[in-house]
Amino acid sequence: LNGTFTPGLAGKTMEYLQGLGANVIGTNDASDKPYPYTMIYDHTGNPYTIQYLVELMKISKFRILSRFNPESQADVTVIVGNEWANANPMP
Question: pTM of the full predicted structure?
Fold first, then answer.
């Protein structure tokens, strides 16, 4: 999800992650307010996926929240924040 005012950031991030082999099921805007930092919401308890994203995107472990929902369509939700918009490695 795009948590910034940078148009298309979620789509660009999706393409970047898919290029690295990630299965991304969709994108959208997070809300009307910007997120200063990227957040990860873990819905199904996938520590290896979380660790991969934390290392790849340089996300603080303090920005990971558990919202366990075994019926969730997504294992993980990533809300990209302003720090990702300003310093990401995407072309």
Answer: 0.90
